Structure formats: C-alpha cells, structure tokens
From TrEMBL:
Its main location: membrane. Gene3D superfamilies: TspO/MBR protein (1.20.1260.100). Coiled coil: none annotated. This is TSPO protein. Belongs to the TspO/BZRP family. GO terms for cellular component: mitochondrial outer membrane. The chain crosses the membrane at residues 6-26, 47-66, 78-95, 107-129, 135-155. It comes from Brachypteracias leptosomus. It is a multi-pass membrane protein. Keywords: Membrane, Transmembrane, Transmembrane helix.
Amino acid sequence: QGRMWAHTVGFTVLPHIGGFLGWFINRKKIPVWYEKLKKPSWCPSRNMFPLAWTVLYTAMGYASYLIWNDLGGCSSKAIVPLGLYGAQLALNWAWPPLFFGARNLKLALLDILALDLLTIGTMCSWYRINKVATLLLVPYLGWLAMATCLTIRIWKDNPEEKPAKSE
C-alpha cells in the first residue's frame, strides 16, 4: 500500500520538476523580454500560467500513473504509451528554454507543433488502456492548442532581428 502511494506521488510530481526548472532558469528573462513582445489581446495574463500549469501537470502526472499501474509497471506493454508520454513531456520541458532562454521563436514553434502531435499520439495510445487517464489530458491538449496559437502569433508579430552585416 505504501509503495503504491509513493508511485502515485512520484508520477504526479514528475511533470512539475521540469516545469519548475524551466521557470526557475528563465524567471528573470520572462518579465523583461516577454513583456516587450507584441502579443494578441487574448493572451492570458502572466499570473494565469503558474496556476494553469500546476493543474495541468498534476492531471497529466496522475494520468501517467494510471497508465503505468494499468499496464503492470514498466512492462513491454508500457513502452509505447509511456514512451510517447515521456517524449511529449521532454518537448514540453524544452519549450521554455527555447522560447525564453534562447529567444528562438521559430524553434519554440517547431517544438510546440511536435509536442501537439506527440500529445495526441499519447492520448490515442492511452484510450484503450484507461479512458479516465485520457480524459485527464483533454484540458492539457486544450491549453496546448491555445499556447500553439499564441506561439504562432508571437512568432509572426515579432520578427527575429537579423544580425547586422559587417562592411
């Protein structure tokens, strides 16, 4: 019983680790650079992001636990469903350093487009295993759709500066 509790907590907390590290590393750059970007009127306030990600990471982490548990742990049946989940989580964690750290809007856009596809693939692979786990990812996919549209708009509305040509 205690071991299952530890697994539940571990899987639920895991997504928060990368999210927290991404915020921590880029926290000083966010207010300065991000605030200067041209953003659409429907862009959520900066205060909304920590709340949204706390809920989304908790739901996706618990969902991954449900899948892991239903498949009997790290079995051969878990390779694809949890591999897709891990891949999308890695792309999720890579987005803040690309966007805020490197300020590479094009690469951040490519990252989030691949993230969208991997998240859909994860949900498709999870559907037959556990419908509740799949449904727990629906708000995440909705948030990713908004974040993808926001990334596209920011990329289009804020052309990257070209290095000056030397004479």
